[in-house]
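Follow-up to my post from last week.
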Amino acid sequence: MTNTSETLAKAPADMKVSEEVAISIQKMNKWYGAFHVLRDIDLTVFRGERIVICGPSGSGKSTLIRCINALEEHQRGTITVDGTLLSSDLKNIDRIRSEVGMVFQHFNLFPHLTILENCTLAPIWVRKTPKKEAVETAMHFLAKVKIPEQANKYPGQLSGGQQQRVAIARSLCMKPRIMLFDEPTSALDPEMIKEVLDTMIELAEEGMTMLCVTHEMGFAQAVANRVIFMDQGQIVEQNEPREFFNNPKSDRTKLFLSQIL
Ligand code: ADP
Ligand code: MG
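User reply:
Got it. Predicted complex:
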């Protein structure tokens, strides 16, 4: 593991979790063809929670995250985001996608567009935001992730860490209430991991509801209020970070932690 816990900015311990439900998942199951990839997932996420999801490769972490914003379809059970039931109804999918931002391992920026254009594209074309306002919002969030001076460059001219911060800014331009992160630092060189994690910590401090798939256990200890361990398509164990790391209950969790810590 990368021990980031000492170097990361500490998130304040009193960050509030609301009683308002942000995401509710009940008995959710998903298959890829005959392969049963997610099994009876039950998960309630309250507004303001910072949840870290960990588990071995292939355990279904990405699939779970992708089901929450309907990048993947589930076949059984329910997913409700901000009170909207996720079904195959396209109207609901649009509404949920506008509430939920997503950041991937491989940034997924448009290489032929400038940083600023990457950030204004969806607000202008999907949200019909006037261009001037979209540019102002983009510059606000580029300043927030500390790279406003890169606005007119192309993604290929930026470091991996800078590109990932653009990806975060681009998501924020859609004003999401929930942010999903799928291994946002896994493709980065070690010296760039911290700058991305610090950006995520700032978001957490502002009360953003966050679900992060990550192997950065230092981040989990510093920022998460809950850590979820998945294996073979199931949520095996979940707890607040201190208990999770110091006193894991299941043998599968113990084995996983012994391999990464
Ligand atoms: P994780 O993110 O925990 O590594 P994934 O959610 O990516 O796990 O994958 C869970 C399982 O589903 C793996 O066995 C993977 O091979 C399989 N899988 C993922 N995506 C697909 C797909 N599009 N079609 C078929 N199988 C898939
Ligand atoms: Mg994955």
